[in-house]
Amino acid sequence: MAAALENHPGGVETNSITRAQIEIAGRSREEPWSCDQATGEAVADLLATLLQAAEIPLERAFPDAMPAKPWATYDFERRKAGKWGRVAGWYGHVEVPENEHWDPGALEWSKLLDRAKDMGAERSLQVAPRAAPEKPPKPLPEWYWPWLSWFLGEGDFKRYGPRSAAHRPADAPEKIPSWAWVKAGHFTVARKEPH
């Protein structure tokens, strides 16, 4: 996960509620624009993959046509629309609360999303259906909480920092099961919410 979004203390959560952040090296534009063909294909392929792997819908909360400028302001109308964190899909920095940079500008999202949908349809003909998500065992295995503390660099592992290879809990499996990653994500988000 990237942490490319501004996230002011006590404000709206940005980085930790995203499932994926994509940065395209290039220049944002004020007039409608699309990626070059090779980049567009790569990004559409990534979007289609993230639909399958992370269940990020190939949708947008906003149309391609951008409203009046200025965009590079905390008060830009899309940042204040109340859709962030409530409407699933893809957002540009220009639409995320607490941010003031305006990339990707007037990107023609619909072209990327339509291509990703085509790729997803092509894949569904070739790939077996995905298995249901793995549920955590009850009770949790004894290795789980020490592993999570190690992964986050907290508790007994704080002095070593996150994911210190020399101090990884010996009883944690080499390949961490998917349920453990999901539970870790829920844990880190839940503790940031007010109680």
List keywords for this structure.
mainly alpha, 2 strands, 4 helices, 195 residues, globular, two-stranded parallel sheet
Structure commentary:
- The protein has helices spanning 37-54, 109-126, 144-152, 178-190; strands spanning 29-33, 105-107.
- With 195 residues, it is mainly α.
- The chain has a two-stranded parallel ribbon.
- Strand 1, helix 1 and strand 2 form a beta-alpha-beta unit.
- Helix 1 (37-54) packs across helix 2.
- The model has no long low-confidence stretch (mean pLDDT 88).
Low-confidence region ranges: none
Number of strands: 2
Q: How many helices in DSSP terms?
A: 4
> In percent, how helical is the residue content?
25-40%
Briefly characterize the structure.
With 195 residues, this protein is mainly alpha-helical. It is built from 4 helices and 2 strands, in the order E-H-E-H-H-H.
Which helices and strands appear, and what pairs or packs with what?
Elements: E1 29-33, H1 37-54, E2 105-107, H2 109-126, H3 144-152, H4 178-190
Parallel strand pairs: 1-2
Helix pairs in contact: 1-2
